[in-house]
Amino acid sequence: MDLILPMLVDGLAASALIFFIAVGLTLVFSVLRVLNVAHGSFYAIGAYVAVVIGGFVMSAGASPWLSFPILFLSAALVAALLGPAIERTFIRFTYGKPEAVQILVTFALFLIFEDLQKLVFGVQAYYQDAAVSVLGISDIGGIIYLNYQLLLIALAVLTVLALRLLMRNTRLGKMIVAVVADPEVSATLGIDTRRVYAAAFTIGVFLAALGGALASPNSGVAPGLGAEAIVLGFAVAAIGGLGQIEGAAIAAIIVGIARVVAIYEMPALEPVAPYLVMLAVLLVRPYGLFGAATQRRI
Amino acid sequence: MLQLLIIGLLVAAFATIPVAFPWLAFVFTLVLAKGFAALGVAILLRAGLISIGHALFYAIGAYTVGFLSQGAGVDLLIPQLLAAAAISGVAGLLVGLFMVRYRGIFFAMLNLAVSMVGYTLLSKLYNVTGGTDGLAIATPSVLGMTLSREAFEHLLLYGGLGLAVVVCIVAHRYLKSPMGEALSAVETNEIRLEYLGIAVPRVLLFAYVGSAILAGIGGAIHALAVGHITPDLAYWTTSGQLVLVAVLGGIGGVVGPFIGATFMESVRSFAAIYAPDVWNIIIGAGLLIVIFFLPRGLYGLIERIGGRRDGQ
User: Fold this and answer.
1) DSSP tag of A126
2) Does A294 fall in a domain?
C-alpha cells in the first residue's frame, strides 16, 4: 500500500508529458479533420530548438531561471515559423480528401522533416537540463521527486484550463467552435474559415513544440524522438476520442498511470502499456472514451 | 495490349539489369520483398482501408524464417517460405477478425497499435527473438542442393521474380472477381453493398488475410536476402514506407506496388552513395508530387500511354 502515493505522483508526471504530445494532435484533428503524422516532427523540432537556444544562452552565463521563458519562446518561434507556412502550402489541399491521402501527405512531411532535422542539428544527442537542476528536488512521503516533474503536472492542468478558456470565451475560440460545427454555414456568416484553419493548426504546432521543449530538460533530444512521440500521441488521442481535448487529458492520465504500474510490476511491458490500453478501449468503445459515433451515409 | 507490352518490357528490364550491374541484384531482391508487402497494402487501400501496421506481418514472415533457421535448424528454402506464408496468414486471420469492424482512421490506428505491441515484444523478449540484436539467418539449401551465397542470391532474385509474376496474375484475377470488385465498392458506399446482400466483413477479412500473407512472403524474402533481421522491421515507419510504396506506384493495377518499390529502393541505394542524408527528403517529396499531381501513381503513367493508344 505504501506504493500507491509514489505511483500516483510518478504516473501523473508521466501523464503530463504524454498529454502535451496528444493535445495538439487532437485539437488539429477536431478542427481540420486531418490526422497529422508530422505532429511528431514539430514535437522533435520544438525540443531541438529549445535545447540549442537554451544551451547557447546558458553558455553565455545567463541565470538558469531564464531557461523557462526560453522553453516557451522556442515553442512559439517554431509555431510562428512553421504553423501557417505548412498549413497554407500542404495541409489545406487535403481538406475533404480521403483519410489515406491526408495521412500520406503528413507522413511525407514527416519524412522530409526527419532529414531536415539531421541536416540542421546533426545526429548527436543534446542535453540541456538547467531547468531541472535549478528547481531542485522535494520530498513527498519519504520519496524524492524532481520539482520539475511537479511543475509539468501543473503546466498540463493550466493548459487544459487555458484551452477551455480559449474555446469558450474568446472570439477566435468561438469561431473555431463554429467552424468545427459547420464550416459552410460559418463561412456564410462571415467567418474567414481559412484563417481559422491556419490559426488552429498553428496552435497545434505550438502545443507539439511546447511538449518537445518541456520534455527536453528531462530526457534530452536525439534522432528518432519524433517517431516515438507521434505513435504515443496517436494512442492517447485515440483512447480519449479523437478531437476531444478533455478526453486527451483523461487518456493521458490513464496511460501515464498504466505505464508506471507496468514499471513497478512488469518492467518489460512498460513500452507496450499505452497500446494495450488503446486496444482494450477501442475494442469496447470503437470511437474512444469520449468520441461520438459518426453517422454512416447511404 | 500496349499496357501488357509495357509491363512485359519492364519485367524483362528488371531481369536483365542485374546481369549488367551485379551489385543491383541485392537491391532488386529487396524491391521484390517490399513489392509483395506493398501489394498487400494496396489491396486494402482499394477498400479505403489504410493500414499503418502491416510491417507486423512483414516482420512475422521474416522472424518465421529466422526461428526456423536459428532455432529449429530448418535451412530449407521452400519450407521456410511456406511456413512464413502460413504463419503470417494465421496472424492475419486472428488480427483481421477484430480489424474488419473498423474503418478509416480507427482501422489505421488499431493496426498501428497491434504492430507496436508486436514491435515491443520482438525487442523485449530477448531470449526468444534476440532483442534488438536480432537473428542471423543461414543460407538455406534449395531442393536438396547446397548453393554458394552468390548462386543463392541469384536464385532468390529470379525465383522471387517468377513468384511475383504468378502472384500478380492471381491478384489481378482476384481483384476482377466479385470478391475483389466488392473491395472498391466498400470504399464507395458500404451500406449499399450490404443492401445488395454482400457480407462486407467477409470480403474484408478475405482481403486482410491475403494482404497479411503477401506481407509475410515479402518479409521472408527480405530476411533471406539480408541474412539478418531486427525488430525495426515491425516499427511503424516500416509500415508507413509500405503504404508509401503502394501509393507511389499506384493502386490501380497489381504491378503498381512493384514499380513503387523499384523507385524507392533505387532512390535509397543511389542516395546512400551520393547523398546519404537526404533520401527521406527525396522519397517524401516524390510522394507529395505523386499525391498532388499523379493521383493514380507511377502506374497511372503506363495506364495513360496504354489507354490512349488503345483508344485510337
Assistant:
1) B
2) no
Residue A259 lies in a domain: yes
pLDDT at A289: 85
| Residue A144 phi, psi dihedral angles, 5° rounding | -90, 130
**pTM metric for this prediction:** 0.90
Query: Does any domain span residue A168?
Result: yes
CA B113 from centre of chain: 20
User: Domain of A200?
Assistant: 3-284
Distance of alpha carbon B53 from alpha carbon A189, whole angstroms: 42
Split into its structural domains, chain A has a count of 1
Determine, yes or no, domain membership for A291: no
From B60's Cα to the closest Cα of chain A, the distance in A is: 18
| CA pair distance B219, B79, nearest whole angstrom | 15
3 state SS of A146: strand
Which of A37, A279, A286 has its CB closest to that of B114?
A279
pLDDT in tens, A45-88: 999 999 999 888 888 877 888 888 999 999 999 999 999 999 99
pLDDT confidence tier of residue B307, bands split at 50, 70 and 90: low
Coarse DSSP helix, strand, coil percentages of chain B, rounded to the nearest 5 percent: 80, 5, 20
For residue A57, the domain's CATH number is 1.10.3470
Mean pLDDT of B129-134: 82
ipTM for this model: 0.88
Q: Which of A29, A33, A112, A297 to mutate to test the interface with B (most CBs of B within 10 A)?
A: A112
3 state SS for B229-295? ECHHHHCHHHHHHHHHHHHHHCCCCCCHHHHHHHHHHHHHHHHHHHCCCCHHHHHHHHHHHHHHHCC
% residues pLDDT > 90 (chain A): 43
* Average pLDDT of the residues of chain A: 88
- Chain A residues contacting B via beta carbons under 8 Å: 35, 37, 90, 93, 98-101, 103-105, 107-112, 114-116, 118-119, 227, 231, 234-235, 238, 242, 268-269, 271-272, 275-276, 278-279, 282-283, 286-287, 296-298
Chain A residues with CB-CB distance to B189 below 8 A: 297-298
